[in-house]
Design goal:
single chain; 244 residues; alpha/beta; Cobalt-precorrin-4 Transmethylase, domain 1; 2 domains; five-stranded mixed β-sheet; 31% helix
Length: 244
């Protein structure tokens, strides 16, 4: 179930209703989620469910659901399973034939993409790149990607990541860095990778970061040749007739 990525008013009426009717709420961080639940007067019990314990807890959670309990899964912000815990539990439920309902709602990647000014008809979501092992390989694999690319990044690694993007994609590639989506200090910095990099070298990046990078520019489509025309001996085109 999605939760607001910043502004508490982004919570849907349905999400509040489902949480109030839940027997158990699985939360990535119960301290963070308690602020949200208190705001909406939700008193269902919570249980920690995060990447460090999900393998140990998924079995007991499955049994609770099979026993008839209504269980809701939320993350600190956004939609569970999208760079957050959730996949393992959903896969387990699907394998057991347990009904899974996913509510539509907040996520940081789509507002960042739409606000970037870059093509959003076709895109790929890459989330967080590997921090060390496999990072260079992952970037090289995206070097010729034609779709707009979406990345999540920590503000502490943003400059290093943009430097790597400039090296792999080229410093002139268009990009947009969105930070603090839906919050009071939401900001979008657009330009070439080198221009955006220069900005954040001067202004310390803060908050949650989404990077949008344009795909490889496509060559303009050549004009289709008229099949009813052919070149004459003098190099000029003449119209074909049905008797040609």
């Amino acid at each position: 179930m999605p939760t607001p990525v910043g502004n508490l008013e982004d919570m849907s009426f349905r999400a509040v209703s489902v949480l109030k009717g839940s027997d158990l709420i699985l939360a990535e961080d119960t301290r963070t989620s308690s602020v949200l639940l208190k705001h909406y007067d939700i008193h269902a019990p919570m249980l920690s469910h995060h990447k460090f314990n999900e393998h140990q807890t998924v079995g007991k959670i499955k049994e609770s659901i099979l026993a008839g309990k209504n269980v809701a899964l939320i993350s600190d912000a956004g939609t569970p399973g999208i760079s957050d815990p959730g996949f393992l539990l959903v896969r387990t439920c699907a394998a057991e034939g347990i009904e899974v309902q996913t509510l539509p709602g907040a996520t940081a990647c789509i507002p960042a993409l739409v606000s970037s000014g870059l093509p959003c008809d076709r895109f790929c979501f890459e989330g967080f790149l590997p921090q060390k092992k496999g990072r260079s390989t992952a970037l090289e694999a995206l070097k010729d990607e034609q779709r707009t690319m979406i990345f999540y990044e920590s503000p502490y690694r943003l400059i290093k990541t943009l430097e790597q993007f400039a090296e792999v994609f080229g410093s002139d590639r268009r990009c947009s860095v969105a930070r603090e989506i839906s919050k009071l200090h939401e900001q979008h910095v657009r330009g070439s990778i080198s221009e955006v990099l220069d900005h954040f070298r001067k202004v310390e990046p803060k908050g949650e970061i989404v990077i949008i990078v344009a795909g490889v520019p496509q060559p303009a489509k050549s004009e289709h040749k008229n099949k009813y025309k052919e070149e004459g001996k003098d190099g000029r085109e003449r119209q074909k007739t049905k008797t040609d």
